[in-house]
Amino acid sequence: MSRCHWLDTTKADYVEYHDKEWGVAVFDDRVFFEFLVLESAQAGLSWYTILKRRAGYRQAFAKFDPVKVAQFDQQKVEELVQNSAIIRNRAKIEAAINNAQKFLQIQSEYGSFSNFIWAYVDNQPLDNRQQQSSPVATTPLSDQVAKDLKKRGFKFLGSTTLYAFLQATGVVNDHDLDCICRSKMS
């Protein structure tokens, strides 16, 4: 069975993530927030490194409840910096808290983060492999979303990170053309 070229098929948990989750359209705000936290934590690291720590992040970041994370204080930051179940980068931890606060502002303005993000693609997943001959790290869409989020005060979410976020949450279908999961996402 053919899967996306980037997938290390020797890692069963990675294959399961690819086959059941990566690229599946997300509409749940908590899941969107989870991917924002995880993708920003991933900056400079491999996604598999973050995937292996996902349970630790879930526990450390209040099951990705943006209301609770937005209220984390400096004492909580210090606790998280000592938590070996997550990436202990102070700037990334503080960015997650900041981003939770900004996430809530978007929810208030648009009714949900889902409404906000899906509006970029007219509520239909963008089939990017049909438009690109090879994988890319950024696109005009990721540039636009990153610029908008930066203007709104989000941190650690540049265009490359946002493109990975859009792929993971199914806003963009980037499964390889011959991948067994591609048709599931269309």
What key phrases describe this protein's structure?
186 residues; mainly alpha; Endonuclease III, domain 1; two-stranded parallel ribbon; 11 helices; 2 strands; 55% helix; globular
| CATH top level label | Mainly Alpha
Instruction: Name the average pLDDT.
Output: 93
Across the major sheet, the strand order is 1-2
Largest sheet: 2 strands, parallel
Number of domains: 1
| pLDDT < 50 stretches | none
CATH topology: Endonuclease III, domain 1
Order of helices and strands: HHHHHHHHEHHEH
What does this protein look like?
The protein has one domain (24-185): Orthogonal Bundle (Endonuclease III, domain 1). The protein has 186 residues and is mainly α. α2 packs across α10 and α9 (140-151) crosses α10. Strands 1-2 form a two-stranded parallel ribbon. Helix content is 55%, strand content 2%.
